[in-house]
Batch of 2 targets.
Target 1
Amino acid sequence: MIIAVTRRLPVVATELLEGAGLTVRMHDADDPPSREALLSLVDGADGLICLLSDRVDEALLDAAGPGLRVAANYAVGLDNVDLEACRARGVAVAHTPGVLTDATADLAWALLLAVARRVREGDSLVRSGGWSGWSPLQLLGASLAGRTFGVVGLGRIGAAAAQRARGFGMDVVYTGRSRREREEVRLEARFVPLGELLEVSDVVSLHCPSTPETRHLIDAEALGRMRSSAILVNTARGDVVDEAALVDALREGQIGGAGLDVFEREPVVHEGLVGLENVVLAPHLGSATVETRGAMARMVAEAVIAVLEGGTVEHLAVPPGGGA
Ligand code: 8YV
């Protein structure tokens, strides 16, 4: 049986798949395949390991043909996969929740600290040779202890980011589709409507999935409700924020700064963001630790093997055969 793998992954994925007697057909590169190359890669495959940059839609399922039984997305987010199309064709869909929680929460905090303490500007100053010594008023940032950390989406990653906020002595408020009462108690977090969260938070950290409801959740109006000193952190999905409105808000000092790991049209970044001082930009590094990417590779390979062998898989968005 053939497993199409759309990118070079940590080697454990290939080892597991080949160890199970499967043939790996890999797009053996760090750059994504063209759409045409992707469609030919999946032709006749029994299983697919794909990335969030690969659109798994009707056309791809057509190109794969009726033998395709499982698609495992190398991500927790599934916004690139047409789940209903997979279900209708009996293609199981797996993903990688859990193993990337801490890595992504750490990255949210890396961005937040870098913005709050002006690490990027300091680094540039030192490297440029223009640093003539420290001075009492040089590159003053913002303290976080005692301030309010606002979480949009208190799922696994949002809760892990909030836990770090508690460790930094911050108060936590959150919003989301539903209340998370156990997490509320554990994190001493207060549930508030989005509007109130935007108004009371010193940091707004986004951890919701990309859905039609969350697209441009943070638009010009939402940005206008935030504090002029507030920092926006996005490690979720780019389209949760209206990037053009964010550029305007940052330029006009409506908010204090932003730490962004995700963008509306990756890998294209709004050129307005690149020129701003109070912004730190990362190239979608949320899950990018050696340990986490290895664990994700193991998880997708094991999911593919389990579906093809009729075993059980922990994290399925669509069950084998499309479900009942
Ligand atoms: C990416 C992510 O998959 O899991 C997600 O939803 O956004 C990340 O883990 C990863 O960075 C590979 O692109």
Note: DSSP finds 13 helices and 13 strands in the chain.
Target 2
Amino acid sequence: MTALQPALDITLAAPFPPDFLWGTATAAYQIEGATREDGRLPSIWDQFAATPGKVFDGHTGDVAVDHYHRMPADVALMAQLGVNSYRFSIAWPRVIPTGTGAVNAAGLDFYDRLVDTLLANGIAPLATLYHWDLPLALHERGGWLNRDTAYAYADYAETVGRRLGDRVGWWLTHNEPWCAAYLGYGSGLHAPGLTDMPSAFVAGHHLLLAHGLALPRLRALTQPGTQLGISLNLNPVYTADDLPETQRIAEEVEIFNNRWFLDPIFRGTYPDGLFAQFNAPPPPVQDGDMTLIAAPIDFLGVNYYSRSMVPIHMGTNPVGNGSATVISSEHQTDYTDMGWEIYPPGLYDLLHTLHRDYHPAAVVITENGAAFTDVLDGDGQVHDPRRVDYVRQHIQAMARVIADAMPLKGYFLWSLMDNFEWAEGYNKRFGIVYVDFATQERIIKTSGQWYARFIASQRGTAE
Ligand code: FCB
């Protein structure tokens, strides 16, 4: 492993509270590999990735970054970075391989060991129960289009809660249900690859129902004070002019990108006009569903990468999973390797709007980060000054949020290490740790060194 470089400027006006969570984030299918080991059965992503043309260059998560076998070393890497928290996801197809029924002890054991290893290193675990890897067996019974999947999910959540609830203090039911529903069932860019908007709304409703059903069951199995939430990918919408048509489109984009999931969770209703925008019927909402879905959460997880600009160059972003991000044709600015505009003030604006309109009890930034074309230099280092700037500027935006006394509790950088970036395969690197995919060697990038120093300065542990 590389030694941390001295003299990386961490100067930043940053009045963060001492218990602020400074972490990194990952997801099971993106890092674990070992897809056929210890009783794990396929998920929709195994099938999707194996389908020609779906993922860049036919890449799959079969090996990923081999985290399943390298977990202790990866936790040691986190300890070296000095993070005090880590967001990971649990693979449903490892824990209950056929989606319902028999629990696979070996699968649960892995997460049990991970949690213990984190705690032994002073790293607080934040577990995501669903980061898109639906057991294939459930997909064969309709997947998220089948209401039963929501009940199966609640059973799965209870199984995990029963095993880890004594030690995990932070939980997310879902990661980005917008992506799971829209990219999975509407645009087809993600697994299971359907292209039907009415189905996307049905899937979205069942994802929300699953969240609502799981909350009380997790509460019953976790310690007092445990924080339960959900992560949404959100992007603030800006307009480049005052034309009525621009305002109208902006409103539609806001409803589709942000309010589709925010409104049910915080208000117990779907926003007017959401389904009509797509000439789709409303999803099958049964009595009591919206009450379950709107049960109070302890924190909202916000995944922020970029903003939307109207008028737009609509259509989805041609690359990756960023179709939430609408690329501006008007603004000449800086973009990441995903084609996502770099716009740190958007994080501040987004959090302000959220607090004004939805009053979440607390917010955690559960993802923020950037892909760049990182290369291993002759000196054996990976210099990524653009990622350092990206992270620094977003932390600066958070400092303004804290200064405004909004309840922001943590920041999880996406990602701990380069990994399988969904439809982009290994072609996009988001890590603050570089991974040589051929050898699985990990090398802390300049951004990782910067983050380590910054955290140390915040925690008062800087040399
Ligand atoms: C988010 C996903 C995460 C990762 C980042 C770049 O949409 O939650 O898994 O792929 O984008």
Note: The two ends are 19 Å apart (CA to CA).
